[in-house]
Amino acid sequence: MQYRSLGSSSLQLSVLSFGSWITFGTRLDQRGANECLACAYDHGINFFDSAEVYLGGEAERMLGQGIKTLGWSRDGYCISSKVLFGTGDNHATANPSRPTQQGLSRKHITEACHQALQRFGVDYLDFYLCHRPEPGMSIAEIAWTMNTLVQQGKVLYWGTSEWPAKDILRLIEFCQHNSLIPPQLEQPQYNLFHRERVENEYQPLVHDHGLGLTTWSPLASGVLAGRYDEGIPAGTRLTTEGFSWLEDFVFENKRDERIAAAKQLKAIANGLGATRAQLALAWVLQNQAVTSVLVGASSVAQLQENLGALELVPRVDAAVLQKIHKIFEHH
Questions:
Q1: pLDDT per residue over 63-96, tens digit each?
Q2: Which of 56, 93, 244, 297 is the most buried (most CB within 10 A)?
Q3: What's the CATH code of the domain at 116?
Q4: Which residues participate in catalysis according to the annotation?
């Protein structure tokens, strides 16, 4: 495993990290989750990601139970939670979160932190992220609340996920002006179809303010791995119960074009003796602005394939990058 500093901090994170979105509680039961967690940890992964909204908190409970069962020392791993949506299913009319059970108010940020600690079965969160920006949110309220949680020892680092750079900068400047602990990380989507934010929008924050990036969806939910070359087979993410909206999110009305581009990636991967999934991951990892890349897996075999991307990174040279970018320059 390779490790990188989280932005300007001294914290060393594994360049591959393990996420629980969609898979935990849907495609992985507790036994399967434990097997994947053990594989990840044994290969040096030290960052495990979740959120309050993932399966109504069940993903966090499963992650916490797996850590307890496997007997990891608390100083050997990092876990994250994200706050905004609450634990209700926001893509269904049943069991929605109540107004005080969601959002970025001091009340919900604080209570959601305590609830995440309870689900995980730990005394503190390594990372606590504002899951998305919220209309009308108070930068001051968020910054002061997060600072309080850090001072109380309940959170070590805090940050954002999919926030516009201008709002992250507002947070940083407010914290600097008021001598508060600033956000340390942003968690954006980053893959061959989604490059603008990481490669352009966030660069001043990375270079000028030491913001760390822990990116998600390196395979575009499996599109870049070739899982949808011949349509959408049963048992994949896009057919998971409760995630019917994901197909529109992934393809953005460009289904045929994106699948065609993913197919062209196969020849480049074959030439390197790798799979498309490994090449897509290695492409993300060659960007040194990225601290860690979140991967999800529904089996140990899939996770092991992802881990194989580490050996490929040094071989993704300028010539390979040029071939890849020629395929994806209009996607």
A1: 999 999 999 999 999 999 999 999 976 555 566 7
A2: 297
A3: 3.20.20.100
A4: 54
